[in-house]
Specification:
The complex is a heterodimer of chains A (402) and B (386). Chain A has 402 residues and is of the alpha+beta class. Chain A is 60% helix and 9% strand. Chain A has a five-stranded mixed β-sheet, with helices on one face. The relative contact order of chain A is 0.07. With 386 residues, chain B is α+β, with helices and mostly antiparallel strands. Chain B has helices at residues 8-11, 19-40, 48-69, 78-98, 110-121, 128-151, 159-236, 241-263, 266-272, 281-288, 301-316, 355-364, and strands at 289-290, 325-332, 335-343, 366-373, 376-384. The chains are: A alpha+beta (402), B alpha+beta (386).
């Protein structure tokens, strides 16, 4: 999905994310401040720089607290602790005689004060907190200058960092994506796509059912030679008519039900094979029979209908009345092979019945993320391999669509 | 279709179209800063020509990123990032060389800021992990350069402080970039998940209605011919030759309808239900879509959604109907090429109105191109067969 946040949620999202980013700058500066003090201390072991190591460490802790809880109290605490730490840092560095040649180190705790931030939504709140942080940092410099006589020149770096932060915020507000209608339209398109996928699934099912029932009976009637209709066909026609006019035959919810319970004898595949036997086909079933019970109910039903159609095809077109069904199981897949030694066919040439394999078997299997392979040689029989994943993934369904 | 990376631009191509101008302005400001810093630190410069070269190389490196930020070139890939970063690193080294062994420990030391600034500005385009890794590698490299410089230095500043001055801006800014990239993508992904869940719920509610409408379509077909015929056969239990012929005839017509329905692609269904003044429902798709090899079926959900959004936008332009639209899909080896031609009132619609859809198409398809030749808007793109 390529869908972004709706326009009304963007400012809030930007707010929280940019605050997080500026906290990352603050943390890095404070860690660096500690390491700088450690560096000077190790260069001059006689100097008293431990307060300059400790102060940023405490400031780091208070900044972390402010970043976590985002309340006025923790923000003020972080500003106060950061300001005190910055004072200690400058005084310790000044006492150690470092300040004359280092414009970099002093700015580290000052930058950390800029990025404390605080509660309150919107650009204005963010800018106010940053200005407060900047004012506090400059106040610390002024107080240190006045009380200790240490002369500080204007802190250019911190001013530049403040300008940069404010500029980024301003640009973000001014140049935010102007395309407010595109996002909702994409949102709607994702939903339409879902609906189309569902509708397609239901249509595939409806088409397959129509094929198995109405078209099958019409073919039987059209090809019959007796004047009286076979009573079995009549009763099947009556049942199917009732089914087609009823409400349940397209109940898609059954597709999503959990794994089908019960042993092999209760499986839809067992029932499908039994029905084919009633039609006069001899079917040998071998292989890992209980494996089909690992399939979800909807998947198992669809697989059974596809196998049934393969068996009906054997009876109708192969010229033999014997078929073999072999079930193979892998960890993530169940495959069923339907084999006959009949006259065989060439799939692309089977135009008159092109819906049979394509609609009742292939489409059906695709709708549950499965695949179909057909090996058939005229005169030597046909093998059809139907494979289904044990856990049907939503993605597989999506890709199997038209 | 290349896999989506966890970047704001790729997860939210539409929302990221505004970011490109911010990126360009920020990178221009970065250049200005570096130039001002060079001038202000003039006193430290030992090799002015190298300082100038540093600025020129910097501009070259940042231009690579500026060009990549354009929505017309989306998405911004790793190769472009690394190229741009490598050039800017060269600029930073040149800047350092220009003041070789003269300690510059303040804002005039622009090299690390340029490298870190680039990584920050790329936050909407590259994943957090990549930004952090780039930041660490780049800072280690710059730290190593000043370590060599500091070996023979005579200043009072300890080497570790000089290295930290070099490393801190790169790390701070790249971490900020990574925090932004991570935070933004997390919010987008969680929003998308929420939308997907809501979509599922809504679709679930529609399920029954859809099933009913599909059933109604079928029943209409059945009611007309099949049910009266079956009822009669069921009643009498007898088939005559006329009945057999009738059975074959009905089977033929049902099969024809089913074949037509099964063959319809999602795109045809979409166009058919779109409404317009041209041919009726069944002929509409044929008039608009030229897809003789049925290639529309090969698009992924993501690609179909993008095309859906584009077509629905076109349809919402004033006076536009599906009759003003032509879509053709042709195979070219392993690649399928799509061309969408729309006749729109270009006076009312500017090219920029289609920028978000272009970005969206770019995220789903390859070789996306758009040109406007009034009143024709032509968009071309391709996707791999799978």
């Amino acid at each position: 999905m390529s869908l972004g946040l709706p326009a009304h949620l963007v400012p809030r999202s930007e707010d929280s994310v940019t605050l997080r980013a500026s906290h990352a700058v603050g943390f890095t500066c404070l860690v660096s401040a500690i390491l700088v003090a450690v560096g000077y201390q190790s260069a001059d072991p006689a100097g008293t720089l431990w307060p300059a190591i400790l102060a940023p460490a405490v400031a780091l802790l208070s900044l972390w607290l402010a970043a976590r809880s985002d309340t006025v109290l923790t923000s003020i605490l972080a500003l106060a602790v950061g300001a005190a730490g910055m004072g200690v840092y400058i005084i310790a560095f000044s006492a150690a005689g470092v300040l004359d040649h280092d414009d970099f180190s002093i700015t580290l705790p000052a930058i950390a004060l800029l990025v404390v931030g605080g509660p309150g939504r919107g650009q204005l709140a963010r800018i106010l907190w940053e200005l407060v942080g900047y004012a506090v940092s400059q106040l610390v410099i002024a107080v240190v200058t006045l009380s200790t006589g240490i002369v500080q020149h204007f802190d250019v770096t911190t001013a530049i960092v403040l300008t940069a932060i404010l500029t980024i915020q301003l640009l973000n507000a001014l140049l935010r994506s102007p395309f407010t209608t595109a996002q909702p339209r994409l949102h709607r398109a994702t939903r339409e796509e879902q609906v189309a996928i569902l509708r397609h699934r239901i249509e595939v099912r409806a088409a397959a059912l129509m094929h198995d029932t109405v078209l099958s009976h019409l073919a039987a009637l059209g090809g019959s030679t007796d004047r009286t209709v076979n009573p079995q066909l009549l009763s099947q026609m009556a049942t199917d008519l009732h089914l087609l006019q009823g409400e349940e035959w397209l109940d898609d919810a059954t597709m999503d039900a959990g794994p089908s319970a019960g042993a092999w004898q209760q499986s839809p595949l067992f029932a499908a094979i039994a029905e084919s036997r009633e039609l006069g086909l001899e079917v040998d079933v071998t292989g890992d029979l209980p494996a089909v019970t690992r399939l979800r109910r909807g998947t198992a039903q669809t697989l059974a209908l596809a196998v049934k159609q393969c068996l009906v095809n054997v009876l109708r077109h192969s010229g033999t009345s014997r078929a073999e069904v072999v079930i193979y199981a892998l960890d993530d897949e169940v495959s069923v092979m339907v084999i006959d030694a009949g006259r065989g066919f060439v799939e692309s040439e089977a135009a008159t019945d092109r819906l049979g394999i394509r609609q009742s078997v292939r489409r059906r299997m695709e709708s549950i993320g499965g695949t179909v392979q057909v090996w058939s040689t005229p005169g030597r029989g046909t093998s059809i391999m139907l494979r289904v994943p044990v856990q049907e993934s939503a993605d597989a369904v999506g890709r199997a669509e038209r | 279709m290349k896999p989506t990376e966890r970047t704001r631009q790729q997860l939210d191509p539409i929302g990221s179209t505004g970011v490109s101008s911010i990126t360009v302005v920020l990178l221009l400001l970065l250049i200005v800063y570096c130039a001002v810093a060079t001038l202000a630190g003039e006193g430290h410069i030992r090799f002015p020509l190298v300082a100038l070269a540093a600025l020129l190389v910097l501009v070259a490196g940042l231009v690579v990123s500026m060009r990549g930020a354009s929505p017309y070139r989306a998405p911004f890939r790793q190769g472009r990032h690394l190229t741009s970063l490598a050039v800017v690193l060269v600029a930073a080294v040149l800047a350092e060389v220009s003041t070789w062994q003269v300690p510059v420990l303040g804002w005039q030391n622009w090299g690390p800021v340029a490298v870190g600034g680039l990584l920050l500005v790329l936050a909407p385009f590259r994943p957090a992990k990549e930004l952090i890794t780039a930041g660490i590698v780049a800072s280690a490299f710059l730290g190593f350069v000043v370590l060599i410089e500091a070996r023979d230095s005579t200043t009072d500043v300890p080497a570790i402080v000089v290295i930290l001055a070099q490393v801190t801006p790169v790390l701070a800014l790249s971490l900020a970039g990574a925090a932004y990239s991570h935070g933004v993508t997390r919010q987008i992904v969680s929003w998308q998940r929420k939308v997907a869940e809501t979509n599922l719920e809504i679709v679930d509610e529609l399920r029954e209605g859809i099933a009913t409408s599909v059933r109604r379509d079928r029943i209409t077909t059945l009611d007309r011919e099949v049910i009266p015929f079956f009822s009669r056969v069921l009643q009498t239990g007898v088939v005559t030759d006329a009945d057999r012929a009738r059975a074959r005839e009905i089977a033929q017509s049902i099969r024809a309808i089913m074949v037509a329905e099964v063959d319809r692609s999602w795109l045809e269904v979409m166009i058919e239900t779109a409404g317009g003044d041209g041919p009726g429902r069944s002929g509409a798709a044929a008039a608009v879509i030229h897809d003789p090899d049925r290639l529309a079926a090969g698009m992924y959900v993501e690609q179909r959604t993008a095309l859906r959004a584009l077509i629905s936008t076109l349809r919402e332009q004033q006076g536009f109907t599906r009759d003003d639209l032509d879509i053709s899909i042709t195979a070219d080896g392993e690649i399928n090429r799509v061309e969408v031609v729309a006749r729109i009132d270009v006076g009312a619609v500017s090219r920029s109105a289609f920028v978000p859809y272009l970005a969206l198409l770019r995220s789903a398809f390859d070789e996306v191109e758009m040109d406007i030749d009034p009143p024709r808007l032509r968009i071309r793109f391709s996707y791999e067969q799978h």
